[in-house]
Design a protein that fits this description.
The protein has 206 residues and is mostly helical. Helices cover 56% and strands 5% of the residues. Helix 1 (35-66) packs across helix 3. The protein is flat, with a radius of gyration of 21 Å. The two termini are 25 Å apart. The relative contact order is 0.08.
Amino acid sequence: MDYSTTALHTESEHPIIGAAVTRRTSLVLPPVFSLAEWKRVGKHLYLISDSSCWWHGDWLVYGQERYPGKYRQAMEETGLDYKTLRNYAWIARRFPASERHPRLSFQHHAEVASLDSVQRRTWLERAAREGWSRNRFRHELRKELGGSRDECRTREIRLQLRTTEERESAWAQAAERDGLGLVEWITSSLDRAAGLNSETDDPIQM
């Protein structure tokens, strides 16, 4: 992939806050920078980093829906981590844009992604009201939900399948058409056969 033609990889300068400037491989700060200005830049960088989790998740969901069978190849060409992005996409699906709390981080949302929509909203509103950090939020969740939250978590089961090369190839092609990895496609197929809603499960680790 030729990155030399993309805006992301040019050496052009972009102001971020005041005199601070971003380049592809550096952040340039002026020789004299007040503490308040330095802190504002840090906050801005954090917001960009946190927002990018949502952006990546929404980008992947769009690709899965718009370009089934092609998005995986596009992802690989970006050089981004597939497992991480799939987790981003799972959380993005769990939270429509209208349910994302602007005062809380992506990681706050990740902590309650496995809960139902009413619980998610209640906990996020409480975290925002109390000003909880992600770690404090996790502590409060464990304290109040306890075992009931742990029971919602998935457990790993290792299965061995005996099959032919032809069948494995056919499964892989079907998964690609659905915009899924093979393991995710098999799990989704089993869920459909059992009448389960796979959207409530944690993301599958490949």
